[in-house]
Amino acid sequence: MINNIEGKNSTRNFGLRDKIGYMFGDFGNDFFFIFASAFLMVFYTDVFGISPAITGMVFMIARLWDAFMDVAVGRFIDSRPATKNGKFKPWILRFAPILLVFGVMMFIKIPGMSNQFYLVYAFATYIIWGSLYSAVNIPYGSMASVISSDPVERASLSTFRSIGASLAAMVITTVVPMVVFVGNKANSSRFFIVAVIMAVLAMICYTLCYMLSTERVVATTQKKGNLLVSIKGLLKNKPFITIVCASLVLVIAMLLTNSLNTYLYKDYFKDTKALSLSGFITILNLLIVAPMITPLSKKFGKKESASAALLFSAISYFLLFLIPTKNAYLFVVLSFLGNWGYNYFNFMIWAFVTDTIDYQEYRTEIREDGTVYSVFSFMRKIGQAIAGAMGGLALSMAGYVAKAPQQTAEVAANIRKYATLTPAVTYFIVFLIIFFLYPMTKEALTEIQAELERRRAAR
User: Fold this and answer.
1) Which candidate, 268, 272, 201, 343, places its Cα nearest to that of 39?
2) How many other C-beta atoms are found inside a 10 Å radius of the C-beta of residue 354?
3) % of the chain surpassing 70 pLDDT
4) Model confidence at 81, in pLDDT bands (50, 70, 90)?
5) CA-based, 20 to 30 A from 15: which of 81, 208, 294, 326?
6) Domains in the chain, ordered, with CATH?
7) Which of the 8 DSSP states describes residue 88?
8) How many CB atoms lie within 10 A of CB 270?
9) What's the mean pLDDT in 106-110?
10) What is the DSSP string of 405-450?
């Protein structure tokens, strides 16, 4: 059962403070998540000298482990009582410092060690970091459903969360390539310095998230029931299954493209400065797309507007695949246009998740925010595992040679092909899933929210 305590004198009303606080949470998360997604493979292949195929296997195994950690953390938190500061956000500050220490350790190269040592060290630090990331990210993601019960306010939280992720991506993809590459080659000491700076900034963001956000929807503590029963219930939740499938494909597209883009600018365009420019102008995408979210979702609905946006991005990247260019800056502009639709959907994804949590309560009259969110995160980690393996596989198929002074023209052309065709195909698949299978239309969502409010008022 849940009690909605919004509006009581003891709790301030939902407002901009909550949105900014929630934004800082993902800002902090993505300082390291995007940093690792975009550059850890390069660090492993070019600094540690680990082959792309083995690097992909390390990513896959670690992410599969993380997926099970997500569910374990979600179930554990659902069984814990709320504190005076909330049920979810205290866990962020409890685990964030340890998480960031291991984040820095991932980018340390101890000189003079064997190849086997570097492989074991990479695997150990990465899997521990991933486990700790679950302990921070699962409570953070679950918070959205208890900060507010209003679907419009939740959509705004999703937008601000995505703004935080986009700001982190802009900082990382703009600044990091200019710092960590010397003569288009990865520099281990510079990677370490950047990792330390990222850790400090992330800790500041986590603290601001804790201080500025307020949990208002209070759930009575649920005993940990049979996980299989909960999962069986989720399997009957069609909106949840649909959004999980869409997110699974989207995560594969995002992480695989991020990994390949580093090699694309480094080896195909031979211009890592253009990679920095690509990261910088993502802020323009943010400024263009973010104001569209609320008016378009209100007028057309989340499902309707998001599916149209995805189709636009799929077509744009397919054109990039068909019309190759050797001009890095032209490619930056064209990919900027192609990412409009992807960014729109990415802004909306967390609002879709909170709606599926409501649908689960609508069906079962039991609210398990942490469990539902953790199962959703479990499936995203499966996608991340697949993307990690596919990233290494794609580089191996392209013929990439770790630590080679220069890649051949054929290898570079193959990297360009994978970096453009991957988002084209995956965005189109996500469009098909959302448009044809996701049942939560604007009308259906309004009906479900009205029924939940009626039930809560009757308690």
Assistant:
1) 272
2) 26
3) 94
4) confident
5) 81
6) 2-458 (1.20.1250.20)
7) S
8) 14
9) 93
10) SS--HHHHHHHHHHHHHHHHHHHHHHHHHHHHH----HHHHHHHHH
Is the pLDDT at 210 greater than 90, yes or no?
A: yes
CA atoms within 13 A on the CB side of 369: 27
Amino acid at 354: T
**What are the structure tokens assigned to 394, written together?**
């794609």
Closest among 90, 73, 30 to 370, alpha carbons compared: 73
**Tell me, what DSSP letter sits at residue 86?**
B
CB 39 within 8 A of CB 262: yes
pTM over 0.85: no
Sign of the dihedral through C-alpha 42, 45, 48, 50:
positive
Token output for 257 = 């493209």
**Half-sphere exposure in the Cβ direction for 373 (13 Å, CA):** 29
Which of 88, 155, 69 has its CA nearest to residue 375? 69
Task: State residue 6's pLDDT score.
Answer: 44
Report the chain's mean pLDDT, rounded to a whole number.
85
The phi, psi pair for 4, rounded to 5°, reads -95, 115
Q: Report yes or no: 128 and 62 within 8 Å, Cβ to Cβ.
A: no
Which of these, 321, 195, 328, 317, lies nearest to 266 by C-alpha position? 328
Note whether 260 and 391 are within 8 A (CB).
Answer: yes
Could you give the CA distance from residue 401 to residue 408 in angstroms, rounded to a whole number? 9
Dump pLDDT digits (tens) for 366-410. 777 777 878 887 888 787 777 767 777 888 888 888 777 788 999
Range 210-226 average pLDDT: 70
Q: Residue 8 carries which DSSP code?
A: S
More confident residue, 432 or 165: 432
User: What average pLDDT score do residues 130-142 get?
Assistant: 90
For 63-95, give one letter per residue: b (16+ CB within 10 A) or e: bbbbbebbbbbbbbbbebeeeeebbbbbbbbeb
Q: What is the chain's length?
A: 459
Distance CA 422, CA 254 (A): 9
Helices assigned H by DSSP within 112-237: 115-147, 151-180, 188-212, 227-235
State the DSSP string of 284-331. Answer: HHHHHHHHHHHHHHHHH-HHHHHHHHHHHHHHHHHHHHHS--S-HHHH
